[in-house]
Design a protein that fits this description.
Elements (H helix, E strand, L loop, with lengths): L3 E8 L3 H5 L4 H8 L7 H11 L4 E4 L4 H4 L2 H12 L3 E6 L25 H17 L7 E4 L6 H9 L4 E2 L23 E3 L2 E3 L4 E5 L2 E4 L7 H13 L4 E7 L13 H16 L28 H18 L3
Helix pairs in contact: 3-9, 6-7
Length: 317
């Protein structure tokens, strides 16, 4: 049995750049195509390594800046042969261009009642389709801020998959009623929940399988662990802006190296760890008790040293 790998890239206008008062073009440049290492760069690398990835695109900034920036995102992704699915940050529903974030709706989708979540997801779906995407079948809430009502709304709207459950964020935004250690796909509220993969970082603490969260060696160990134990799926997170510094003005060399290493690892291990699109609807055994990679103090220490370099040198240079 192979382990399906969902390599997911959340693609969105970063609120921090809107809060700086930047115009739509500047926000696009810093959020979606920052410093030459945005989605076009990532799409090129994916093509070179023959990998599939899902780009979860948030269309809600269209309510503030118009649909064209979202159309540009969608066209860039689809033209490269990758898939677009739905992402949603509801704060944009009340945002006003160039007001530095003074006006906004509630940030977390899970803070809305069921009927309002349904309406927001429907609105986002229509915007994404208007931007040129096929009808979405998979969803991730912005900041993982989903709950059981989110899943019920998605199922009622015909979605097949959600990938909002993140055990490393379960004490904050992620409020789906699953164990923080749930990493195997599971039936929930009428659809299939495909949790983000986490590893044990220290006693009682989990860490997301994400470029900015794990070293290249930790990511490889997590993937090899999933393959060796026959996990149903491994779900990786990144962002369109994640290979650049927070300002979106220069590449973060540490994160670029991690992305390159991740692509190389997935290409090398593709027989046991094939990358999939959600639209492939790969067969998934549901309800398994797959266990996260166990903690390793040495592995964590090496990552912390690398992270210190990334935070203090790459971000401040």
């Amino acid at each position: 049995m192979t382990t399906a790998v969902f390599l997911t890239i959340d693609t969105e206008f970063a609120w921090r750049h809107h809060r700086e008062g930047l115009c739509s073009d500047a926000i696009y440049h810093r959020s979606v195509e920052p410093a030459g290492v945005g989605i076009s760069y990532q799409l090129d690398k994916l093509a070179r390594y023959g990998l599939k990835a899902c780009f979860f695109v948030d269309p809600m900034p269209a309510l503030t800046f118009g649909i064209e920036p979202v159309r540009r995102m969608v066209a860039t992704i689809l033209d490269a042969g990758q898939e677009v699915q739905l992402h949603l940050h509801p704060a944009w529903t009340a945002a006003i261009a160039r007001d530095r974030g003074a006006n906004h709706a509630k940030f977390d989708l899970s803070d809305y009642p069921l009927a309002e979540q349904y309406a927001l997801i429907l609105q986002a779906t229509e915007l994404l389709i208007d931007a040129g995407a096929p009808d979405p079948i998979a969803f991730r809430a912005g900041s993982y801020a989903a709950n059981d009502d989110t899943l019920a709304a998605l199922a009622a709207l015909g979605f097949a998959y959600d990938s909002s459950h993140n055990g490393a964020a379960s004490c904050d935004a992620s409020r789906i009623s699953l164990s923080p250690r749930q990493i195997a796909p599971v039936a929930a509220q009428g659809l299939i929940e495909i949790p983000v993969t986490v590893i044990e970082d220290r006693p009682g603490q989990l860490r997301t399988l994400q470029l900015c969260a794990l070293s290249a060696n930790e990511s490889r160990d997590a993937l090899e662990h999933a393959a060796a134990r026959g996990h149903v799926a491994a779900t990786i997170v990144s962002h369109g802006f994640e290979l650049a510094n927070r300002q979106g003005t220069r590449a973060n060399a540490v994160h670029v190296r991690r992305f390159e290493a991740l692509c190389a690892t997935l290409a090398e291990l593709r027989t046991d760890l094939p990358t999939r699109h959600f639209r492939d609807r790969p067969p998934l055994v549901l309800g398994r008790h797959d266990r996260p990679l166990a903690r390793d103090p040495i592995r964590r220490g090496l990552r912390q040293a690398e992270q210190l370099w990334s935070n203090w040198v790459e971000e401040r240079a």
